[in-house]
């Protein structure tokens, strides 16, 4: 059999360990492996090459993806999806491992509804917002990058009488912000899933400032679009000079953590085994309570990821 691997959408730390495991494991199984370079753009342009163990030597510790990725606009058009399908057929590729997030999975849902393709998706996004899986590849590394940044910002915040707003990624999902706020002991957390109770927070922080609090850390999810509003509010109502730090794409970089590497291996082995055993898979491999399982792509794409009540409760103390 011939299996291919592709990265699509935002890169996530852990993609390279997954790519390495893919090539090594498919080789061990006596099958052929291919790289689809440049995401769905490369699939359209037939940028597909056979992979060898040499290609994946020395990559396990690297962030990003050696086969690169893209956000393809052309893939929205049927004629390009047809071209992509023909490229796969011409190489006799029997199955694809897709490392991507929700946009990529939606693209695969449309693609698989039109053409007979066999794929398993691996949830790979720092946003951690894929329905059905409590964990997505890359989120652990990203959380550690954010934790490190906030620890450093705390150093400077605590040296002044200042508030700092740290804006973190996550698209419409507040996962990165909520976990980061909890583990960093932030005073404020603003996420799209919970209404921000300004009045309560103001009362609590005013009392603390009167009692000697000298600085404030606020973690704001990018999906709320509220960083500048919170900035103005803190300056006006709490009387603290305030700075905004938008962490940006640094959150997608860095060497994958031990956890992301181990999960990359487990996800990839499960995906390859599934593809080798099934001829018509439109599945996503998901992780919950220590177990991997598979769900249909339609289910992943039609339902919305919701933050666990436990996580929401853990930021309640900030109200
Ligand atoms: O989906 C991952 C992510 O990093 C989001 O958190 C962020 O909103 C977006 O991608 C940024 O996209 P781009 O790299 O295209 O600017």
Task: Describe the protein's architecture and organization.
It is a single chain. This protein has eleven helices and eleven strands. The model has no long low-confidence stretch (mean pLDDT 97). By secondary structure, it is an alpha/beta fold. The longest helix has 21 residues, at 139-159. The strands form two sheets. It has a seven-stranded mixed sheet, with helices on both faces. The protein has a four-stranded parallel sheet with strand order 7-8-6-9, with helices on both faces. It folds into two domains: 2-138 and 256-303, Rossmann fold; 140-252, Phosphofructokinase domain (Rossmann fold, 3-Layer(aba) Sandwich), CATH 3.40.50. The N and C termini lie far apart (56 Å). α1 crosses α9. The relative contact order is 0.17. The protein has helices spanning 15-28, 39-44, 78-90, 102-114, 139-159, 175-184, 198-210, 227-238, 258-277, 297-302, 309-314, and strands at 2-7, 32-36, 48-50, 95-100, 119-123, 162-168, 188-190, 216-221, 241-246, 282-288, 291-296.
């Amino acid at each position: 059999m011939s299996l291919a691997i592709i990265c699509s959408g935002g890169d996530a730390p852990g993609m390279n360990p997954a790519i390495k495991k893919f090539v090594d494991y498919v080789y061990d199984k006596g099958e052929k492996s291919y790289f689809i370079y440049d995401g769905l753009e490369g699939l359209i342009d037939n940028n597909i090459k056979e992979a060898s163990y040499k290609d994946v030597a020395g990559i396990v510790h690297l962030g990003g993806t050696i086969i690169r990725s893209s956000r393809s606009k052309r893939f929205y058009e049927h004629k390009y999806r047809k071209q992509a399908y023909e490229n796969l057929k011409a190489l006799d590729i029997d199955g694809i491992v897709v490392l991507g997030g929700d946009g990529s999975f939606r693209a695969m849902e449309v693609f698989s509804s039109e053409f007979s393709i066999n794929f398993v998706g691996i949830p790979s996004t720092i946003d951690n917002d894929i329905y059905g899986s409590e964990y997505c590849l890359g989120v652990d590394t990203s959380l550690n990058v954010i934790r490190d940044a906030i620890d450093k910002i705390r150093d400077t915040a605590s040296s002044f009488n200042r508030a700092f707003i740290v804006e973190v990624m996550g698209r419409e999902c507040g996962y990165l912000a909520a976990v980061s706020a909890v583990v960093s002991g932030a005073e404020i957390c603003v996420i799209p899933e919970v209404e921000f109770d300004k009045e309560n927070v103001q009362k609590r922080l005013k009392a603390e400032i009167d009692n000697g609090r000298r600085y404030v850390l606020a973690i704001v999810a990018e999906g709320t679009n509220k960083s500048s509003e919170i900035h103005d509010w803190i300056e006006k109502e709490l009387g603290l000079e305030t700075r905004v730090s938008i962490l940006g794409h640094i959150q997608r970089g860095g060497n994958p953590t031990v956890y992301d590497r181990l999960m990359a291996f487990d996800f990839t082995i499960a995906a390859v085994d599934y593809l080798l055993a099934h001829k018509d898979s439109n599945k996503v491999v998901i992780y919950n309570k220590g177990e991997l399982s598979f769900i249909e792509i339609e289910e992943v794409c039609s339902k919305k990821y919701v933050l666990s009540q436990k996580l929401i409760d853990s930021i309640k103390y900030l109200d």
